[in-house]
Amino acid sequence: MAEETKHGGHKNGRKGGLSGSSFFTWFMVIALLGVWTSVAVVWFDLVDYEEVLGKLGIYDADGDGDFDVDDAKVLLGLKERSAPKPTVPPEETEPYPWLEDQVLEGPGPQNIEDEVQEQVQSLLDETIYAEHGEDLHQEQDGPAGELQPEDGIFAGGVTDDRYEPVGTGAVHEETEDSYHVEETASPAYSQDMEDMIYEQENPDSSEPVVDDAGRTYQEADDITYQEYDEQDYVFTSSQMKEVGFRESFEPSENEGTESSDNAVDDSNTILEEVHVPPAEEQREVPPETNKKTDDPEKKGKVKKKKPKLLNKLDKTIKAELDAAEKLRKQGKIEEAVHAFEELVQKYPQSPGARYGKAKCEDDLAEKRRSNEILRRAIKSYQEAASLPDVPADLVKLSLKRQSDRQQFLGHMRGSLLTLQKLVQLFPDDTSLKNDLGVGYLLIGDNDSAKKVYEEVLNVTPNDGFAKVHYGFILKAQNKIAESIPYLKEGIESGDPGTDDGRFYFHLGDAMQRVGNKEAYKWYELGHQRGHFASVWQRSLYNVHGLKAQPWWTPKETGYTELVKSLERNWKLIRDEGLAVMDRAQGLFLPEDENLREKGDWSQFTLWQQGRKNENACKGAPKTCSLLDKFPETTGCRRGQIKYSVMHPGTHVWPHTGPTNCRLRMHLGLVIPKEGCKIRCANETKTWEEGKVLIFDDSFEHEVWQDATSFRLIFIVDVWHPELTPHQRRSLPAI
């Protein structure tokens, strides 16, 4: 008994003190109190963690931009203080003189490229919104992207008062060899760099950065670069998504397309729009909207290095920078601009303050649809990079953003200068060289772009982005067989910017031309990855939800009156066409878009992108007068009205038009009895004099002329009947 007492026992066998169940009960009570206390702290925002972290930042002893265990060891004397490594070379600690001399909106050095092809804008969209007080207007350098009204269509919600380029000359329809970089501005740096500049103490934060419109910024490597209205435009080196790189990337004087697959206004960008319409309306999505670029496994293997964005001065004022940035992220853009402006006044040598001001002005430009504010943002990005003692990562980020915004405003030469300086400052960064290659393509300088990609591939032979673009250039130079391995290996690499519908398009087309039966395998893969509506329907600028079938009847289109008028007056239309053919001035212009395998094919255009060619109509006045009564065709800004003459021995390669927003009518005028036929998808038909054939040229089609005399038809494009009136007004021209 004494022994039991000594050990705290009782006669009944129970141990003294708290029982196991009582101890567990008290443990749970304390644990729950702790949990609810934590919830209360977070819920009622009792602690300003950003302020605490900002204060701890001043104890950063090892120069890595945050306060951590290593810093504590240094402060306690357990570890030697490491000498801070300069983030920029000594010679660059002074302001960059080239940044101060750079003319952002001017024409740039004449020895760089004398002709900036505004057509390069088939990447952005010529859409200008003149109906919103301080709407963004495309700059003179060339149309690129515009900030669009909220109720418009991304990258293309043009109003009736849309900008019309000044000048004459035939406008090209986008060809199969047109590369629209809807990502043409390079992909925005990375989210770490873009939106976590003031959160280096918390690199693992998983909170997405949301702007005032509720948009989350994504990794910029593989997105169609869009900030002004989620998918509205695109530029990118890792972002080549939406600028129109053409064949030789030179504007052509005429656009030859039997079934229109190609004309793009030289001053337009074809930036497809994702309609943000009433629920019942369909949406148009840019070519890369559905792209699934990166292999998740590859993404996981690449660990991004944390950028160094704060210099010594910015570390001491980090709490103030964070407070201003917090306003921006909460959507209080005007307040954030004011806060950063005060910081710039207070700390004029702070690159973080100027960069924050630039980002806020960028957001405000979107919010107000203002080119003027966007120009201020460009200037602020330049100023941030040109201050002394700017971390190299921030220099890179600021200049990339500056280049992107210059491209967006159509300042292609200014953007090119910025990209050239980026490559000079960071010669080992191949992604910047890739962006530079895109910059050259955007001004039509294929040769310089080719040299850049050759240089990249010499250093990094497995760079997928460089491969697909190098292959694209080779194909544009008609080096079809040589282009195939580059396009194929580039797509297979899975690198950012390579899973783009245009590359599948060109790879399949190249394979078809050399007789490689794997072409449809790649078309199928492009379809599976969301780039094509189907294996047959491979247009890149589409409105989702429209009825899709290769061949149509007049009744199905709803345009029966137009068809009847064409068929009733076919002889009048024929006679005016023959009269033009008989003239010696050469009014029929040869097709020059590399659609022919062989032969002779020319056309005479009366309407292009919804614009009447008054001079051409003088040659066919009665035909033009007849068509003036039908706005479904004369107002079709994604089509043409033209005569097409094809001579014996001509074969047109299988190809597709650029958009599903139109249907194409062929009126037979002079048709040989045998030898002329057209295939659309898997059905082949022949023309009849005085009869109209209607097909959707976004489906693959092919033409043969094996007769003994010429074939003359009249081509009339009409809006797809299911497009709403708003869409017909808003969709950008192609």
Automatic annotation (TrEMBL):
Cellular location(s): Endomembrane system; Membrane
Residue ranges of every copy of the Aspartyl/asparaginy/proline hydroxylase domain listed in the record: 567-721
GO CC terms, sorted: endoplasmic reticulum; membrane
TPR repeat start-end pairs: 430-463
Record's bilayer topology term: Single-pass membrane protein; Single-pass type II membrane protein
Coiled-coil ranges from the UniProt annotation: 357-384
Keywords of the record: Coiled coil, Disulfide bond, Glycoprotein, Membrane, Phosphoprotein, TPR repeat, Transmembrane, Transmembrane helix
Positions with biased composition (Polar residues): 259-270
The keyword Membrane is assigned to this record: yes
Classification via SUPFAM superfamilies: Clavaminate synthase-like, TPR-like
Transmembrane segments: 21-44
Aspartyl beta-hydroxylase/Triadin domain ranges (all copies): 12-77
Record InterPro entries: Asp-B-hydro/Triadin_dom, Asp/Arg/Pro-Hydrxlase, ASPH, IPNS-like_sf, TPR-like_helical_dom_sf, TPR_rpt
Molecular function terms, GO-annotated: peptidyl-aspartic acid 3-dioxygenase activity
Region (Disordered): 246-306
Family that this chain belongs to: Belongs to the aspartyl/asparaginyl beta-hydroxylase family.
Protein known as: Aspartyl/asparaginyl beta-hydroxylase isoform X13
Biological classification of the source: Eukaryota, Metazoa, Chordata, Craniata, Vertebrata
